[in-house]
Amino acid sequence: MSGTSDGAGAVTATPAAGVQIPVEPPLHGLGVSLPPADAPAKTEGTFPYAADLWAEGLLWAAVLRSPHPRARILSIDTAPAAQMPGVRVVVTHEDVPGDAGHGRGTADRPVFAKDEVRHHGEPIAAVAADHPDTARLAAAAIAVEYEIQEAVTDPQLAFEAEPLHPDGNLIRHIPLRFGDADAVGEVMVEGLYRIGRQDPAPIGAEAGLAVPRPDGGVEIYTASTDPHTDRDLAAASFGLEPEQVKVVVTGVPGATADREDPGIQLSLGLLALRTGCPVKLAATREESFLAHAHRHPTLLRYRHHADADGKLVKVEAQILMDAGAYADTSADALAAAVSFSCGPYVVPHAVVDGWAVRTNNPPSGHVRGEGAMQVCAAYEGQMDKLAASLGLEPDEIRRRNVMATGDLLPTGQTVTCPAPVAELLRAVKEAPLPELPKDAPEAEWLLPGGPEGAGEPGAVRRGVGYALGMVHMLGAEGTDEVSTATVKVSGSVATVICAAVETGSGFSTLARQIVQEALGVEEVHVAGVDTDQPPAGPACHGRHTWVSGGAVERAAKMVRTQLLQPLAHKFGMSTELLQINDGKITSYDGVLSTTVAEALDGKELWATAQCRPHPTEPLDDEGQGDAFVGLAFCAIRCVADVDIELGTIRVVEMSVAQDVGRVLNPRQLRARIEAGVTQGLGAALMENLRTTRGQVRHPDLTGYALPTALDAPDIRIVELVEDRDVIAPFGAKPASAVPVVTSPAAVASAVRAATGRPIGRLPIRPQAAVAQVVRQ
């Protein structure tokens, strides 16, 4: 008898006679495709997003933003706004009672601009009024006199430009030196790469509601992804103690970055405290594009040395990241970029310099795969150049250099986690290639540009490209990673209390599965998140699967012990000889058999636990140090059709092999990988927030193109390598960041193969994909 899996946990046993006998899959627990509890509410439109909130006596807020990327503020006259009927209050920098600066990484960003504005869209003032239209009109009526300054928008000029900020223009410089700086190879290739400004483009409106409290504090309801950090920033700005500010997390409509511009929350809180009334703000799409953080535009210069057999000898690189006007998390992004600048390859020698600088461009910050995505596009471009120079296939040059467990990063850190990079590359290489489209009228939609495109089928070339990517798990460089969770069980219902925000990563579903696995209780509720709970940290780098999931697991096991100890004592056995399945407790010998509800006997059991991974250390003056807890890897093969006369590109298929550690929820994992690949596709082909001398052009979803279902290729997950990381709870690794990092490089590699062009800029412009020799 043989067995097959449908990928969602169900197994069908097949007798020799060929009769199909369905075998019931487990109903819950780890390894099962448990559906999200909030799926019905989201599909029915009843999910509680921040933009839907309401309160009695509600006022509406609007923010006045700078129309200039750089200017001195000579005067601000709020009288025209304050005198308008329906306006309750107008606030500026003069009304900020506490710390004027805020920021997730570095507190260098003012709540409201004081003496000068440093980027297009910087907040100048905020208004609270009894109607949203009144608030917007009042904000527009505020008279600001500017002295326009020459904006510094080229990060290369920031080194010599006058200081744009009291802290200077240089945020961080990391000089990485590994091995022999004078080493050279028999073959050398060079490249210049530019990565554009990708916006996280949250589909839901960035919104919030602030409600004043009788004790002089304030409650802020918003889609925060890191509520305790937001609370601390708000309390410092308001001149309050942290316990006087409460952040309540509303439904988050997906997050691939920090999600919310903190300035929205700060403006709302100040207005609520000044008026004594609830105040609501829902940002327009234009405001979102202007205010929240974007992926760092990056300029990269690379030189790769290799021997005659294609083995890497040395990598030289210069990485310049544009942080925009403020530092935010740019120091962290730069550390990732420099540390992973050589990719998942064995490189004996490396000389890498990385800089993050301030400019008058829009702010940059945390976006999924920050730092790692930019360098992946560059080092994979270099690997393609090496292959061409040596006459090797692109997959072969990679195979000869791939990293494995026990190898060293250029930071000197030993890769102790599973690193099945060779296996991933082999899986995508051996996957069957898609068929070529037939030259028939009904297949025209398969061509680049679609059925209405102007191209000719004879001008289409197919290219196959490869890319290997890597990301780090959790925070880095000494970040104290910790999360706390409480698990309660009463009757046949369990509850999880943890401040880990569900951003679309599936943590709330995972928490239910963990408790189901440990306690055999099918009905598990995950409580809403607010800052009255102990901190769980930000929702990035796969943190909540590891630290928050680990805390939930430890708390659930503590409750399990409380539940089983009385029974074990009564029957004279250890708790290890008892097991819980489907709500039933049984002993190894079958003597004991009871239900969880009967064992509880009306009692409520609960436990609180923390999870804190092993510590890391900052990079030293030569870029050396054990800065990362763990790593995750991915291989992608891209097949793309390119019209070499028009430069139009159609990605036909993306074959993905990923290092996942352990599959905890098959359907959810596949969805995360597919979403990550699609986001990376956007960065490769279309997503770029364009600016002219610091001025954002077309800050809307008409001018900023996002991939839709029509743009998404066939995404084939050909292998998920379950080589468990022994130091991670459950052995699982992050799922969504590494395909975002890898897929843009794979697309660029496929276009290179189709056109013979170098492709050094993302997103790829049509003119860059026009082949040097077109068809006759």
TrEMBL record:
- The Aldehyde oxidase/xanthine dehydrogenase a/b hammerhead domain extends over 44-150
Gene3D superfamilies linked: Aldehyde oxidase/xanthine dehydrogenase, a/b hammerhead, Aldehyde oxidase/xanthine dehydrogenase, molybdopterin binding domain
The record ties this protein, via SMART domains, to:
Ald_Xan_dh_C (SM01008)
SUPFAM superfamilies referenced in this protein's UniProt entry, alphabetically: CO dehydrogenase molybdoprotein N-domain-like, Molybdenum cofactor-binding domain
Query: Where are its TM segments located?
Result: none
Domain of life, per UniProt, equals Bacteria
Q: Which PANTHER family match?
A: XANTHINE DEHYDROGENASE, XANTHINE DEHYDROGENASE SUBUNIT D-RELATED
* Protein name as it appears in the record: Xanthine dehydrogenase family protein molybdopterin-binding subunit
